[in-house]
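Example for tutorial group B:
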């Protein structure tokens, strides 16, 4: 039996066209992805609405899953339509009213040669109840973050717009480094020394009521939540800029926040920077050191959309019926 402490509400998962009990192991220990990180995935959320569960921007997530697979040379053995309908069925099968959804495509059993040409490609879809990634305290009080000493992989070295499983090893190392030093999250710089992203989140800043985020050339994963917040902010009348964000711009911002499917919107209230030896740190307070008005306005608007309370953006919802 598997401990389901961190997978509340999960009863079954979809694997290769069928549903299996959560406690049934079906993946071989010699699967290529387990050894080399040759997988792609998505993080998707379903929210409770008056019309039942609604999946946020499902077509966009499925499109990116297939794009990521193409970057890795994975030929998904199912159509986009089948993956989409199976995600919906997974919510139904688990009787979830809201959920975090994880489709995963990976090179499975066949060979442990680096080139997995003799490995089959397999797909699994799971869903469970999962609160926001950084926790409710961060949503209320804001995050204390650390500039990480290791630079983010560069867009000239890898395709950062693909969600490749192996790339998240660097994210795991980054968040561990920050957590061990008492921080809520870390921020990667890119090779140019500008702000890239968090371990699993995009970054926005606000200065003089102008909202700014960075482009994919800044070594980031172009987030679907990031794109959504850009559109929501412009709809609310805010000016939005997309371009590089320097450390100084972040340090002097009036507000700053993370975005991501798992995170939603998380305010950043302080940013710390270590010296080269890692022995001293400088604190940079963001604005007044508490979640900002624009950040909270955007978050409230985002919640109204995902909960089906904004007809204009209902096109972003796929209802599970």
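The residue assignment follows.
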């Amino acid at each position: 039996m598997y401990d389901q402490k961190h997978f509340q509400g999960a009863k079954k998962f979809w694997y290769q066209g069928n549903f299996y009990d959560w406690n049934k192991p079906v993946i071989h220990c010699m699967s290529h992805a387990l050894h080399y990180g040759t997988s792609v995935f998505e993080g998707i959320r379903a929210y409770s609405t008056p019309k039942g569960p609604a999946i946020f921007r499902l077509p966009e997530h499925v499109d990116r899953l297939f794009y990521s697979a193409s970057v890795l040379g994975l030929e998904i053995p199912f159509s986009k339509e089948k993956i989409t309908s199976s995600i919906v069925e997974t919510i139904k099968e688990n009787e979830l009213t809201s959920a975090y959804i994880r489709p995963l495509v990976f090179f499975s059993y066949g060979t442990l040669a680096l080139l997995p040409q003799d490995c089959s490609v397999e797909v699994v879809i799971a869903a469970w109840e999962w609160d926001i990634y950084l926790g409710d305290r961060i949503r209320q009080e804001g995050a204390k973050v650390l500039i990480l000493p290791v630079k983010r992989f560069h867009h000239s070295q890898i395709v950062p717009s693909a969600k490749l499983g192996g790339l998240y090893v660097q994210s795991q190392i980054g968040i561990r480094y920050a957590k061990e030093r008492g921080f809520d999250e870390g921020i990667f710089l890119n090779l140019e020394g500008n702000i890239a992203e968090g371990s699993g989140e995009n970054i926005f800043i606000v200065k003089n009521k102008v909202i700014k985020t960075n482009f994919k050339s800044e070594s980031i994963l172009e987030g679907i939540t990031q794109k959504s917040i850009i559109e929501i902010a412009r709809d609310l009348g805010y000016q939005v800029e997309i371009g590089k964000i320097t450390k100084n711009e972040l340090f002097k911002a009036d507000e700053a926040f993370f975005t991501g499917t798992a995170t939603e919107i998380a305010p950043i209230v302080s940013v710390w920077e270590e010296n080269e030896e890692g022995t001293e740190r400088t604190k940079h307070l963001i604005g007044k050191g508490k979640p900002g008005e624009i950040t909270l306005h955007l978050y409230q608007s985002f919640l109204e959309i995902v909960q089906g309370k904004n007809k204009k953006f209902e096109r972003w919802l796929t209802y599970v019926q």
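Residues 12-128 form a domain with the D-amino Acid Aminotransferase; Chain A, domain 1 fold (CATH 3.30.470.10). Compare this with the pattern of hydrophobic and polar residues in the output above.
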